[in-house]
Design goal:
Helix content is about 40%, strand content about 20%. It is an alpha/beta fold and about 150 residues long. The protein has one domain: Rossmann fold. A 7-stranded mixed sheet has the order 4-3-2-1-5-6-7, sandwiched between helices. The radius of gyration is 14 Å and the shape is globular.
Length: about 150
């Protein structure tokens, strides 16, 4: 199963961070795709990469590299030069249109894990846009809301 990650650039709050082990305890994804943005993308990647690396090392045929789709050259360079476990990552060339990039992420995944900044859906914002795109594409979504609630 390939997991897509989307979330707020504000970063995860304590309740969302505390739920990371809960969300990822039942299954280690075969692949991970995210946009490489500041905030939630970085934090979830930092949480998953060491766990993922262990599986990737022992079962390389079963796991794909973590795929990152940054929106800017600056973010691409950040991941290319500063990321731990560089051998685990494939970094796409930047797509300047973040909404197009988010649609691409949805197309590449079997399940989307979303960490929005608000408990209620909003019209604006890339995270909720990506959630709506996943619903339209029939991709299952797991929301980890700021209040700590996990909605499947």
């Amino acid at each position: 199963m390939i997991f897509g990650i989307t979330g707020t650039r504000q970063g995860l709050n304590r309740a969302q961070r505390n739920n990371l082990p809960v969300v990822f305890s039942s299954v280690m994804p075969e692949g991970i795709v995210h946009g490489g943005a500041v905030g939630a993308d970085e934090e979830v990647d930092a949480f998953l990469a060491p766990l993922y690396a262990e599986n990737f090392r022992y079962y390389p045929i079963l796991f794909r590299p973590i795929e990152i789709h940054p929106c800017t050259k600056t973010r691409r360079d950040y991941w290319a030069y500063n990321a731990l476990f560089r051998e685990l990552r494939v970094i796409a060339w930047p797509d300047e249109d973040p909404l197009r990039r988010n649609r691409l992420i949805v197309k590449k995944v079997d399940q989307l894990i979303a960490f929005p900044a608000t408990d209620e859906e909003t019209k604006r914002g890339g995270t909720w846009y990506t959630v709506r795109q996943a619903h339209l594409a029939g991709v299952p979504v797991t929301l980890i809301l700021p209040n700590g609630e996990i909605v499947i």
